[in-house]
Design goal:
single chain; TIM Barrel; two-stranded antiparallel ribbon; 17 helices
């Protein structure tokens, strides 16, 4: 079976121009003894917004891998796919993030629900799980309730997995299941039930993306109780370790943290938790690279800075339409956003200071950064005009992309200070 390495990071690349500087960050990590695998990911929604095809992701990644002589594993992720969208990803992808958000909360047939509960008496009662201080006490009613929310989603994941396997062959791709797009974080007992249901579907699950406590807003730091997150994260690691033993799930099954870019305050707790369970991690980043493109444009000055300002002005004018699809993962006080007229007078230092994720910089503007995070459609509409400017400002963009991915993400998450 094709296996994902212990540590991997999903790297989004909206316009397929930054694979080389992204890969340089992984090369720097390898030089420090950190074996981290790049997974280039792009969702169907992003392809639709930009007007690209999934094959472009593999082509850009392959070019970077070849040019930089990367001999370690790498993958291409069909991000957040379902049966309606998977076809165009089948050929170029070897990693599939199965998104079952639509099915969460949909009731399974009563007979199937009853059969699941009857099939899993081990889920009921007092369950001692190494790594969790207090044994879990789970009633039949609680198992039934959780299955009522998630069983149909697990069955949908099974159908999607089997469809992919029928086309690519079993063992030829990596499977992740995403259950993070729901209102409430899953508790350890709920995750236990969900993994039992996925095991019933015989999915060779290698990563699972639950919803964690707190807010994972796009492009900015984690918002929430870090201590509570740490307890939940470690409990999830313990549950995964238990279910590997209990249900024969793949031994390399690991947690995936979605919208994981820029969540700096939880990187150290994650790094310290993983060795307690000899656990791996998949962290998905995406828009952080697109933001570094804008920062690189602004840093270059001249036409690059002018284009970055133009994109901000357009984003400001269309903020409602841009933000609507991302309403649950952004938190912007629109009244505090800088006016385009003011931004038009900014220097390179002012623009980059506002957009670069450095909370200690008095110029940093959390709202403007979130707005631009979801504004890549503005650049997409510019077509070659935007792409040509990326080429003209390649030096400053590449430098920022590599530094951001290595210094702000890989190093604190997997290496330490």
């Amino acid at each position: 079976m094709l296996q994902i390495s212990k540590f991997s990071i999903g790297v989004g690349d909206r316009f397929a121009h930054q694979a080389r500087p992204q890969l340089r960050a992984f090369i720097k990590a390898a030089a420090q003894g950190a074996d981290v695998v790049p997974v280039w990911n792009k969702s169907n929604r992003e392809h639709t917004f930009v007007g690209s095809e999934p094959s472009s992701v593999r082509a850009a990644a392959l070019a970077a891998v070849t040019e930089l002589n990367w001999t370690k594993p790498w993958h291409v992720d069909a991000d957040h796919i379902n049966l309606d969208t998977v076809e165009r990803f089948l050929a170029p992808s070897d990693f599939f993030t199965i998104d079952v958000a639509h099915f969460i909360g949909q009731p399974a047939a009563q007979a199937e629900l009853d059969a699941f509960v009857a099939r899993h008496p081990e889920l009921i009662g007092t369950i001692a799980i190494p790594g969790i201080d207090e044994p879990l006490t789970i009633t039949r009613e609680a198992v039934t309730k959780t299955a009522g929310v998630y069983l149909a989603a697990a069955q949908a994941a099974g159908r999607i997995y089997r469809h992919i396997a029928s086309r690519k062959g079993e063992g030829n791709f990596i499977t992740e299941v995403s259950i993070d797009e729901t209102d409430d974080p899953q508790t350890p007992p709920e995750l236990l039930v969900i993994l039992a249901a996925l095991a019933d579907e015989k999915i060779p699950l290698q990563t699972i993306a639950p919803k964690f406590t707190g807010r994972f807003n796009k492009g900015v730091d984690y918002v929430g109780d870090v201590a509570q997150f740490t307890r939940e994260f470690e409990s999830d690691l313990a549950v995964i370790s238990h279910t590997i033993r209990e249900y024969g799930l793949p031994a390399n099954l690991k947690l995936s943290v979605h919208s994981g870019s820029d969540k700096f305050s939880i990187y150290e707790p994650i790094r310290l938790a993983l060795p307690k369970f000899n656990a791996g991690l998949h962290l998905k980043t995406a828009g952080t690279t697109w933001l570094e493109e804008l920062i690189g444009l602004a840093e270059a000055g001249g036409p690059g800075l002018a284009l970055a300002k133009e994109i901000y002005a357009e984003a400001f004018s269309h903020s409602e339409d841009l933000c609507k699809p991302y309403a649950s993962v952004i938190d912007i006080d629109y009244a505090k956003l800088p006016e385009p007229a003011a931004v038009a007078g900014w220097t390179s230092e002012q623009f980059t200071g506002a957009m670069r994720h450095d909370a200690k910089n008095p110029l940093y503007d959390r709202g403007a950064r979130q707005l631009l995070h979801v504004a890549f459609k503005i650049a997409a509409k510019m077509g070659d005009r935007y792409l040509n400017m990326l080429d003209e400002c390649e030096e400053s963009i590449s430098r920022n992309v590599t530094l951001n991915l290595y210094e702000r993400h890989i190093r604190p998450l997997l290496i330490g200070k």
